Amino acid sequence: MSAKNHRINEQIRIKEVRLIADDGEQLGVVATDKALEMARERDLDLVEVAPNAKPPVCKLIDYGKYKYEMDKKNRESKKNQTQVKLKEIRMQPKIEGHDLQFKSKHVLEFLQEGNKCKVTVRFRGRELAHTHLGKDVLHKVLELLGEENYNLDRAPQMEGRFMSMILSPKAKKK
């Protein structure tokens, strides 16, 4: 639950709440008016931390400080996330050997950066009658990459005039 949608002090309109003191001590089920009074005496706020519990759980804390801590936790968790991008490499069924090696090297670089890669073969005109050539090109790419460098997320498959497969990087062992 984010810090934005907590009910505090007078916003809590239920008869009684389970109260937790600022030091973490359980004070039991208390009438809301009494809990508000205790909060004012200690110069703190009454914050509803678990609204779905029966009765709702409230804490005596400094709301500004609590909100700051929650935002800090959210920023920390976002810092450790990595965005995985889907890169695409396009080829044609009549690709030459050197070009195939060059493009396979790029696919490998994308995978080593931690990105997924979509390898696509585009068929033009009468090439569409020879889709087996496209499948051969995609299998050659897999051979050039080496099995230890990728996971095959989606095997080669036709999508209109394109045949494509999706590769993801192998998980790194720690």
UniProtKB/TrEMBL annotation:
Family recorded in the similarity comment: Belongs to the IF-3 family.
Membrane spanning residue stretches: none
Species in which this protein is naturally found: Salinispira pacifica
Listed Pfam families: IF3_C (PF00707), IF3_N (PF05198)
Biological process (GO), any one: ribosome disassembly
Gene name, Swiss-Prot/TrEMBL: infC
GO MF entries: ribosome binding; translation initiation factor activity
Subunit structure: Monomer.
Domain Translation initiation factor 3 C-terminal: 84-170
Name under which the protein is recorded: Translation initiation factor IF-3
Location in or out of the cell: Cytoplasm
Record PROSITE patterns: IF3 (PS00938)
Organism phylogeny: Bacteria, Pseudomonadati, Spirochaetota, Spirochaetia, Spirochaetales
NCBIfam families the UniProt entry points to: infC
Stretches assigned to the Translation initiation factor 3 N-terminal domain: 8-76
InterPro entries assigned: T_IF-3_C_sf, T_IF-3_N_sf, Translation_initiation_fac3_CS, Translation_initiation_fac_3, Translation_initiation_fac_3_C, Translation_initiation_fac_3_N
Keywords, alphabetical: Cytoplasm, Initiation factor, Protein biosynthesis
Protein role: IF-3 binds to the 30S ribosomal subunit and shifts the equilibrium between 70S ribosomes and their 50S and 30S subunits in favor of the free subunits, thus enhancing the availability of 30S subunits on which protein synthesis initiation begins.
HAMAP family hit by this protein: IF_3
Signal peptide: none
Gene Ontology terms: cellular component: cytosol; membrane
